[in-house]
Design brief:
By secondary structure, the chain is of the alpha/beta class. It is built from eight helices and ten strands. The longest helix is centred in the last third of the chain and has 16 residues. The N and C termini lie far apart (38 Å). Bound molecules: NADP nicotinamide-adenine-dinucleotide phosphate (NAP).
Amino acid sequence: MRIGVLGSGGMAEALGGRWVAAGHEVLIGGRSPERSRELASRIGAVAGSPADAVAFGDAVLLAVPAAVAVDVLGAAPGRVVIDCTNSVVPGRFVLDEPRVAARLASASGAHVVKAFNLCHVDVWRRPSLTFEGRPLGVPLCGDSASALEVVRELVRSIGCVSVDGGPLERAELLEAATAFAIGLWVGGADVRSMFPTIT
Ligand SMILES: NC(=O)c1ccc[n+]([C@@H]2O[C@H](COP(=O)([O-])OP(=O)(O)OC[C@H]3O[C@@H](n4cnc5c(N)ncnc54)[C@H](OP(=O)(O)O)[C@@H]3O)[C@@H](O)[C@H]2O)c1
């Protein structure tokens, strides 16, 4: 697949690099041409403008701060856009930008899928995405069946399994749950202990 990436920071590098390694074509379209070129050459992608990233191919990863997400994406009618943003207020771990995915969809006209926001960037940087013998689960929320299928394939291709999170209106729950979990992690809680397997 061809994936355009808006942003040239940590998530752009971690996910973009994994997709290149999985055989996809990736275009990095950050706001700084120099940083985009530098990242692209590091991970084996190509560089372009933000507009190039939106137009590039099968999906667009939006990897910028939530506060600027709507403005950075702009109009993108019919495009498949993966929203991995989190808008967590440091220290309070509440949302300062609620319903980012839903607002992105209505402002841009894109088929937005909320995905890849739950785990810290260091998880996406790990050599393997299998933990305790199981592939990492990636929750997806979206309304477009075809967009969800594109993102499921991107999840599969990096060795993870997608978890159906329901329609885009439920993305706000994923955004809030992520903020809650980040607060627990930062506070030193064992988040995994709260979700036992019951057989
Ligand atoms: N870090 C994590 O653990 C993690 C995990 C899951 C989801 N996320 C979410 O993923 C998104 C990206 O996070 P990240 O860790 O990659 O952050 P990052 O390393 O700080 O990179 C942010 C990127 O956004 C760009 N940017 C900032 N302000 C911009 C603006 N006004 N217009 C255009 N581009 C702008 C930056 O460009 P410059 O380099 O030019 O400043 C940079 O390329 C965020 O929404 C974050 O909440 C992060």
